[in-house]
Amino acid sequence: GRSAVTAEGETVCPFCSVGCRVTLHLVDDRVVWAEGADGPANHGRLCVKGRFGFAYLRHEERLTTPLIRRADAPKDPSHGLRGAEVLSLFRPASWEEALAHAAEGFARLRDHHGPSALGVLGSAKGSNEDAYLLQKLARLGFGTPHIDHCTRLCASVPPLTEATGFAAVTAPIEEIAHSDVVLMVGSNPDMNHPVAASFLKGALRRSTKLILMDPHAQSLSRFASHHLPLAPGSDVALLSAMTRLVIAEGLYNKAFVAQRLEGFEALRARVEPFTLDVAARCSGLAPEVIAEAARLFAGARAAMTFWGMGASQHAFGADNIRAVIALALVCGQVGRPGAGLHPLRGQNNVQGSCDAGLLPNYLPGYRSLESAAERAAFDEMWDGHVPSAAGLTVVEMLDAARRGTIRGLYVVGGNPAMANPDLAATRAALASLDHLVVQDIFPTETTAFADVILPAAALAEREGTVTNTDRMVQRVKPALAPPGVARPDWLIVRDLAVRLGLPWEDVTVKTLFDEMASVVPALAGFKWSRLVRDSHARYPLDSADLGRNSLFADGFARGPRALIAPLDGPGADEMPDADYPFILMTGRLREHWHTGAMTRRAPVLEALSHEPRAHLHPDDLARLGIATGDTVEVRTRRGMVHLAARPDPAVRPGVVWMAMSFFEAAANELTINRLDPTTRVPEFKFCAAAVERC
Ligand code: SF4
Fold first, then answer.
1. Per-domain residue ranges of the chain
2. pTM
3. Residue 443 confidence (pLDDT) above 90
4. CA–centroid distance, residue 133 to ligand 1 (Å)
5. CA 687 – CA 572 distance, rounded (Å)
């Protein structure tokens, strides 16, 4: 009961990028309930994950002490292990012994095989300070260019940066309140950003109209004035036809195009082949529906444009997003109240982790690795030597491990043995490493291949800052203590760095944040002391230090250089055929977050959704003679899983949809290792699959 509460603390939700503030109510150091605090992004609201997801903090499988692999414990890549199965392979160790063992392994490989034999995988779930120090350790301590993090599995910003020169949303979610039209492409916020969806639904109940581009009849489709259930892979054709129409009918924003945009004529030529008939053939939509949606969007007084992983998680994801941005810019839908471009980010600190330079191609603040002057500035500031070449990305590092060119890997908060495509190949890569150190809060599938496991504190147990999808930097304070001797990530990274000879003994959260703010242009004016005083602030700060909602009112940071470079039609790598007649699409559920490491250890969420299911259209199930709940085998050229069939009229015929969160039938056993050439994001939403009753 509430009378038994002995303490309470405030934190920021660790799941999605909305960044809801949460009050945790504690009894005997356990979270007994959570409620929405009056944060800048949620104003008291929470979704089911924020409400019931915090039970993971005191789950019995939390890592509480450093662990070293037993000499007689083989690394078996044949199947995934987790939890107690993993712990049986290790023996407890002191911090001193574990850090020494971790550091010695990295130093040995670096000295014998060169710095490029090492890789570092971070996480968008850590704090800004974690991310900043980790990339610095990779570049200075390891000397490797191979540093990346899990945002690579969903990156939806690079095409926006191409167009605007700015690597963050131009307008926050709350601008919906000033929009008369919202365009949503490949995003399901009701599942993945539910509090953002609640604000959207509020606007839709008033007078805002929603154009929803999604192959599935997701729950928001009943709120949409125009739901365009396009065929998977036809985004470019559809969006290009809409752009062609607004140009041909003179509905585009001529003043905006004349004064602000470069590349308009090239765009006009590029979209010319995409007539309504072509788009209709590719997408399966009626030409008049496409035209109506285009005219509605072009005629909006102010329109917000959102996109998500349905657009980005493809081998042609960058083209999808370029096509979205092109339509919005031609219509001048940016830079005014209610008009803006917003890639809905995935994890809670995607924005901050990228700002901090946890990327293989950018130094902190998106400063170019190709610039000798930028590198020299960092060399001087850091008293070291920044590698000059861009490094490998998340999936590429595992590919390099399989080839034997990467031999040591430091994984901080990531779980590639569940999150990467083609898990059999990923497990083989992890098992082949000479030295793997994994830092996490649970014995994940990836820790099964570790030589050393370092126990980390969860976000609610530590101090730092995180940056949400709206460019809002929020300070977090410890609401409770970490279990056992677990420590914050930045502290573990610092102590490892000291053992590698870096003089970082005096580094603190404050010094890290202030150093990061001093090198990230968007954080100009930010100080740790300011966040201690105000708890949050949106960047960039305006003249009154309030943070600017709407960017590019005065023009772009630089003119869009290449507005659009679309493929000529669907660009999927592996099309359905006689042997594999279905399209496999993966995604997330409202109750579970990504690989499920946290939410599947929260009893209420697990009770709400406790088993993997293959979602298929009822007509497909009837045709295959499969009843609800029958066990089916879903098979691709990479692997197979067994799980229960679920009829789902929202799923398109010919598609099998699976959530990525269930280790019992891991969707990524099936997915294909094909990367977008620009973003290097894997194809998670289109490969050929077979479905049979077992
Ligand atoms: Fe957490 Fe996102 Fe839900 Fe808010 S909307 S409570 S940040 S998962």
1. 2-58, 67-154+373-535, 170-343, 582-693
2. 0.96
3. yes
4. 26
5. 8
